[in-house]
Amino acid sequence: MRLILLGPPGAGKGTQAKILVEAYGIPQLSTGDILRAAIAAKTPLGLEAKAIVDRGDLVSDAVVNGIVSERLDADDCKPGFILDGFPRTIAQAEALDRMLQDKGVKLDAVIEIKADADELVRRVIQRAKESGGARADDNEEVLRKRLGVYSDQTAPLVAYYSQKGLLKAVDGMAPVDEVTAVIKAAIDQ
Ligand code: ADP
Asked: How far apart are CA 108 and CA 160, in angstroms?
């Protein structure tokens, strides 16, 4: 099973990805988590990415494409994977297409998780409170920036994957277990 979870910050991609990891026994590949780990460990990648991530901008396509390409080569991705937070631009989607073509594999589905802007802001502010400020980009000002970046750069992927017949939209405003049920039904269709 090869899936992409698409949706704005706070839509619930990470929450659903973790549930699907258990359900399908495939890994979650979160470019946000990989970048945050690199930032925490102060690796060269982390040092390069920190200011960009903290202000809510996108790290360059070349850098994230490299991260994903390397990660997809790992053995645990052979049975499949759940991409969370990648691709985020059309150029990343095209790069992913080339990576998968090289491996001779295909995506099964792209799940778009939708939610209202007010609810996204509420959830991210809540997450910031609960995590004690663990993420420098989880504050209202940077969040507004991330939502703008999402509509400008990432939302065009909806049409991109829709044209390929891969897109399945789910209502991310529903309770977590209902969202999971709808995603599973869409995948198992
Ligand atoms: P969220 O979806 O909650 O905004 P993520 O954890 O997916 O957060 O990503 C956090 C930040 O990491 C992004 O705002 C961006 O700076 C960087 N990032 C993550 N994935 C990518 C990507 N595919 N391309 C560019 N930057 C990325």
From this structure: 15
pTM of the model: 0.94
* Distance in angstroms (rounded) separating the CA atoms of residues 54 and 179: 29
Ligand 1 pocket test target in 45, 50, 52, 53 with most atoms within 8 Å of CB: 53
Q: What's the distance, Cα to Cα, between the start and end of the chain in Å?
A: 13
Quote the CA–CA distance of 12 and 16 in Å, as a whole number: 6
144 catalytic, yes or no?
no
Query: Is the bond preceding residue 87 a cis peptide, omega within 30 degrees?
Result: yes
Annotated catalytic residue within 88, 98, 103, 144: 88
The two structure tokens encoding residue 22: 């258990």
CA of 139 to the centre of ligand 1 (A): 14
Give the number of other Cβ atoms within 10 Å of residue 35's Cβ: 22
**71 included as an active-site residue:** no
* Helices and strands (H and E) in the chain: how many: 9, 5
pLDDT in tens, 24-71: 999 999 999 999 999 999 999 999 999 999 999 999 999 999 999 999
Residue of 38, 39, 34, 55 whose CA lies nearest to 141: 55
